[in-house]
Amino acid sequence: MSAEEPWTVGRLLKWTTDYLQQQQADSPRLDAELLLAQALGCKRIELYTRFDEVVAEEPRGKFRQLVKQRAAGMPVAYLLGRREFYSRDFRVTPDVLIPRPETEHLVIAALDRLRETAKTETARICDVGAGSGCIAITLAKDLPKLQVTAIDISAAALQVAQQNAEEHGVAEQIKFVKSDLLTALPENAVFDLIVSNPPYIGLVEKPSLPKDVLQYEPHVALFSGEDGLDAIRELVRQAPSHLKPGGWLLIEFGPVVAEAAVAIVTASDQFEAPTVEKDLAKLPRVLIARRKAT
Ligand SMILES: C[S@@+](CC[C@H](N)C(=O)[O-])C[C@H]1O[C@@H](n2cnc3c(N)ncnc32)[C@H](O)[C@@H]1O
């Protein structure tokens, strides 16, 4: 960055937007604004009233570092340490998957089934593969009587989820358990609903994944065997003994594994015929299965 003109907020944004565009960033202007707001310790919206302000050397150095990392492919959410999900703000680190908007469909499907139960009695649910805790915490916030068990195989992810639960004031409602799917639960742990956004990408798909996902997001959160179905297969096998009769199993998945995942549930004699909900792009996104009543 040359020194002939002062580096104002406006000039830094323009320069950085052009630079990130050359580096093929998807949303260069938004990224530049978010990173400059982070370096200045202000809200993004405040940049618009500070356009002509000259940025001091210290925040400029901080900004330069952030832009360098972004240009190398580091996702903005990890650089900020935050991501919005279901209109709430969550802490994220490279130990957890960055929450995706598609997962809000899974939350809505769970809320639809829980609302009546949770109003009148204490419903119990289990979130398998909690990651940042975005699903467990959103459900606990919306249903204050809900009791949640949040499972993850990653101790580092559970720490992030615990911090998020504290920040959102729902730590009392959520028990965090390190477990490989449901295996560490006591036999008598029985839920009204099990919700999961498990890893569902096949190792065969690895070469076609975007570079920033592959390079920066935890592989334990992404991949599940050659065909992407290991976790779903095992969850469908384990879930019935931890679900009440008539209880729900809700799983997020993607279009590549959708047909095979539906076939797995259909082949189980423990569930009624499953249904599938689509996301805004009309892609199959949520698998809904109900444990048979008897
Ligand atoms: C796709 S991420 C979902 C994270 C979060 N629920 C979300 O929707 O953003 C999958 C999560 O499952 C966890 N996981 C992977 N294999 C697991 C297993 N066998 N048992 C429990 N958790 C597992 C990963 O550590 C990761 O946090």
From TrEMBL:
Domain of life: Bacteria
Catalytic activity: L-glutaminyl-[peptide chain release factor] + S-adenosyl-L-methionine = N(5)-methyl-L-glutaminyl-[peptide chain release factor] + S-adenosyl-L-homocysteine + H(+)
Binding site for substrate: N197, P198, P199, Y200
Coiled-coil intervals, chain numbering: none
Residue stretches making up the Methyltransferase small domain: 119-200
Database matches in InterPro entries: DNA_methylase_N6_adenine_CS (IPR002052), HemK-like (IPR004556), N5-glutamine_MTase (IPR050320), PrmC_N (IPR040758), RF_methyltr_PrmC (IPR019874), SAM-dependent_MTases_sf (IPR029063), Small_mtfrase_dom (IPR007848)
SUPFAM superfamilies, alphabetized: S-adenosyl-L-methionine-dependent methyltransferases (SSF53335)
Any GO molecular function: nucleic acid binding
Gene3D superfamilies, per database record: DNA helicase RuvA subunit, C-terminal domain (1.10.8.10), Vaccinia Virus protein VP39 (3.40.50.150)
This enzyme's EC code(s): 2.1.1.297
BP term (GO), one: methylation
Residues engaged in binding S-adenosyl-L-methionine: G129, A130, G131, S132, G133, D152, N197
Enzyme class: transferase
Swiss-Prot/TrEMBL keywords: Methyltransferase, S-adenosyl-L-methionine, Transferase
Domain Release factor glutamine methyltransferase N-terminal residues, every copy: 12-81
Protein family according to the UniProt entry: Belongs to the protein N5-glutamine methyltransferase family. PrmC subfamily.
HAMAP family on file: RF_methyltr_PrmC
Cited function: Methylates the class 1 translation termination release factors RF1/PrfA and RF2/PrfB on the glutamine residue of the universally conserved GGQ motif.
Protein known as: Release factor glutamine methyltransferase
Gene: prmC
